[in-house]
C-alpha cells in the first residue's frame, strides 16, 4: 500500500518530530510512504478567516498526489477535514476524497494497529478536538445520546503501559479555533484555562490530541499557568518506546 504523507505547514515548522513520528508509524504498518515535498498548506488558516480566494493554487500538489497513492494521510484532523470537505471536495470524486485520512482514522479503518510496538508508561489525558470528533467522526460527541465509541482510544490501546484518561468535558473546545484565538483572545484563554483545570483535576502528566494546533494553544496556557503538564501529539505516543 502506497501512502502519501502530508505534514501540515505548522507541524513542519514548529513540531517536526510529529511529522517524523508519523512517517515511522506508517512504515511500521508496512506502508510504502511517499513524502509530499512541495510547499504545502491546506489553506485552512486563510479560509477560516474569510480569505478562501487567497488559497487558489493550494490544491495543485494534492491533486497531483492523489492519483498516485492509495491513501493520503496527515497527522492533523483539522487539515484532513479541510482538505476533504472544502479544498478538494469540488474538484475530485467521492472515491478520491475517501483517500484523505487523518492518522488515527487511517490506523483504525485501514492499516490496523496490530503491528504497532509502542510503550509509554504515563498517565495521559485525552483532548478530543472538534474537527476530529464532529467532522471526521473519530468518536461520539457528548451531546449525542448514542452508544459511545472512540477510534482514538482504540488505536491508543496499542501503547503498552499507557494510563489513558478521558476526563469530563474532554470533547469541549480548547479555545484555539485558528484566528478565533487572535480576535477573541480573552475567551480563547478562558476556554484553555478551563481545559487545563479539568486535566489537572484528573492528575494527568501529559495531554494528547490528534491536532498540534489545539496542543500548541494548550501548551501556551499551561506555561502561563505554571502547570507541570506537557502536551504530546498522538503520533508521539504511538511511536514511543519508553
From TrEMBL:
Top-level taxon in the UniProt lineage: Bacteria
One Pfam family this sequence matches: CCG
Alphabetized GO MF terms: oxidoreductase activity
Species for this entry: Sinomicrobium pectinilyticum
Protein name in UniProt: (Fe-S)-binding protein
PANTHER family: LACTATE UTILIZATION PROTEIN A (PTHR30296:SF0), UNCHARACTERIZED PROTEIN YKGE (PTHR30296)
Record-annotated Cysteine-rich domain positions: 3-83, 124-218
GO annotations of cellular component type: cytosol
